[in-house]
Amino acid sequence: MTPGNPLVLTKAFHSSGDVIADRRAGYAKMLAEGGDHTAAADLMSQALEITPDWAAGWDLMGAYAEKAGDVSAAISAWRHLEALDDEGVFGAGLKLAAHGAGVAANGTAVSYVEALFDQYAPQFEHALVDRLGYRVPEMLDEMVSQEMARLGIAGFARALDLGCGTGLMGERLRGKTEHLEGIDVSAAMIAETARKGIYDVLQKAELVAALTARRADADLVTAADVFIYCGAIQPVLAALVPALQPGGLAAFSLEAHDGPEALFLRPSLRYAHGVEPTRDALVLAGLDILRFETAVLRFDRGAPITGMLIVVRKPALALAAANAPTAMSRPD
User: Keyword ATP-binding: yes or no (predicted)?
Assistant: First the structure.
């Protein structure tokens, strides 16, 4: 699940509590929609002089200033926002980190991601598939099908679709598994996909917590454009591997970069992972790499977003190997 661009959250359009400030914010929104982000930022600045504790207003101010090219003003707005938004719904910490003015917290910014996708749910499929050329579920499904044929797997008993969104991945998995479960942090996304009747079970939860609470009962786990919101891949894999049955498969995507860094946070507020560090992390997690490919995942503002498409397998003898006695070295 991934929108093409970070969105101004619905919460941002709530009233400031002051009629004049709201009116100026409304004019600012009209100017921004017309492309005049400098004027929009100026009007938001005036609105915030009246209502300095309006968190949503500072979020709009930062967005307009950033689009106007005034990064210093955007950073100043996000610092005000961070001080006002205790729950992190607006992702101020992520925005500061993405612009070199802070450090992103470890793990998923749950409140931000939940609010983002709660807003995005109604237009998710139209924007992602029709406008951004999104094909990750299709590509992952094809790779899984090829590996099933190669390994002689007729089907799966229990599949788990992480970040199930509106069911784009689930629609493709349905015919491959007897039992299909979807997990998503967004209640609105869960509601959208529930209408389709794809999944046997739907759960609203943060994925690492949900995986950690499971026993090794899944023989297929998928995550289409989900781990890009989770930060470092190692904690995700540490939760994923125990949730897989021995011999189980996992298929997922990541946005990619070619540098030596394990990951960095893009201005889109999505993480890009390094190709070689990711490969190393999979090996260290004890997974067998079946497929590891790079491809264009979608387009963002007209530019192609390159990512990794990965299929791994938990070794069938992982449990036995873990319990086996260590061989003693022969004396010289």
Answer: no
Among candidates 134, 216, 203, which has minimal Cα distance to 168? Answer: 134
Distance CA 258, CA 92 (A): 27
Amino acid letter, 65: A
Q: Which residue has the tokens 């009246």?
A: 50
Q: What is the DSSP annotation of 266-325?
A: -TTS-EEEEHHHHHHHHHHTT-EEEEEEEEEEEEETTEEEEEEEEEEE--TTHHHHHHSP
Q: Which residue, chain included where needed, has tokens 């470092």?
A: 232
Domains of the chain, earliest start first: 10-105 (1.25.40.10), 125-316 (3.40.50.150)
**Average pLDDT, integer, range 258-270:** 88
Cα 143 to Cα 227: distance, rounded to the nearest angstrom: 18
Contact of 256 with 304, CB cutoff 8 Å: no
Taking the mean position of all CA atoms in its chain, how far away is CA 29? 27
Helix-then-strand count for the chain, H and E:
14, 9
* Cα-based angle 100, 75, 72 (whole degrees, multiple of 5): 95
Could you tell me the pTM of the whole model?
0.85
Mean pLDDT of 213-232: 93
Angle at 159 between CA 155 and CA 160, to 5 degrees: 160
Listed in sequence order, the residues at least 6 apart from 191 whose beta carbon sits closer than 8 Å to its beta carbon are 121
Q: How far is CA 70 from the centre of its chain?
A: 27
Residues 168-210 pLDDT 10s: 999 999 999 999 999 999 999 999 999 999 999 999 999 999 9
Where do we find the tokens 């400031």?
16
288's tokens: 């067998």
| 3-state class percentages of the chain: helix first, strand second, coil last, to nearest 5 | 50, 20, 30
